[in-house]
Amino acid sequence: MEVMMLVLKMIGFWFVSMILSTTVHECGHVVGGLLEGWKFFYLVVGPVRIYREKLQDKIRVGIEKNVSLWGGIGGTIPAKKEDVKISSFGRILLAGPLASMILGVIAAVLGLLLHSLFFLMLMGVALGMGGSCLIPGIKTGILYNDGSRYYRIHRGGQEQAEEEAIFYAAFREYINPDAPYSEDSIQTLLRSKDVEFRYAAHYYAYENAKEAGNAEEMQAQIDAMNGMEKVPAAIRQIYAIEN
């Protein structure tokens, strides 16, 4: 019985540690964005979503329907056109792992001072989360982890071009909402080894064709998207074509 209670206690400590670590990590991204002059847009931890529909809207609380995002995501967006800088985004990426490391150090101190198993568990989870997010070349779900994306932004070559293409496409409406998606960016993403980026490229090409009223090209891009394999459901949901 005592062994069972210890196991249940450890599971409980781990679960709470994961929730706390994820919340602090994603809040780190949010705080990093705020420090860069960006505006809060959403925070997802588990099924809980705190968000705005539009930048000027009030903050709401709801349920996140995209289960693939339950692992945690925190987002801010530029408040002004001049704030759209990929260098700012790079620093925001690192703010999450930094917050995790700070939490881990605090938990370690408390664990040693209080002889607390919970805080030692929290230390391990937080430091593990922060450290794993800095290892280059690793994907967490549908996206590269924070460290990988930071390295890709500064690495040069195809990987940097892909990150820049995705970044400027995501914030296109803040730069010039009436302009089409960059053809150079679309071609860059089509050359990617990652199916997620190639799928996004076809979506951007579809949107350009739609704006130009080119029904034949629109259908060609839809066919290309439908014919792609191993595309995560979350990516299909993000780049869903509205009928």
Structural account:
By secondary structure, the protein is α+β, with helices and mostly antiparallel strands. The chain has 2 domains: 16-146, no CATH class; 172-238, no CATH class. 62% of the residues lie in helices and 11% in strands. The strands form 2 sheets. A 4-stranded antiparallel β-sheet has the order 3-2-1-4, covered by helices on one side. Strands 5-6 form a two-stranded antiparallel ribbon. A hairpin with an 8-residue loop joins strand 2 and strand 3 (60-63). The N and C termini lie far apart (59 Å).
Set out the fold topology.
Layout: H1 2-35, E1 38-45, E2 48-51, E3 60-63, E4 73-78, H2 86-114, H3 117-132, E5 139-140, E6 143-144, H4 146-155, H5 157-170, H6 172-175, H7 183-190, H8 195-212, H9 215-226, H10 233-238
Helix pairs in contact: 1-2, 1-3, 2-3, 2-4, 4-5, 5-7, 7-8, 8-9
Tally of separate domains: 2
Q: Strands of the largest sheet, in order across it?
A: 3-2-1-4
Helix content: 55-70%
**Gross morphology:** elongated
The percentage of residues in β strands lies in 5-15%
Q: Taking Cα atoms only, what radius of gyration do you get, to the nearest Å? A: 20 Å
Instruction: Report how far the terminal alpha carbons are from each other.
Output: 59 Å
Compressed to H and E, one letter per element, the order equals HEEEEHHEEHHHHHHH
What is the strand tally?
6
Largest sheet: 4 strands, antiparallel
> Count of DSSP helices?
10
User: Which spans have pLDDT < 50 for at least 5 consecutive residues?
Assistant: none
Structural class: alpha+beta
Mean pLDDT score: 91
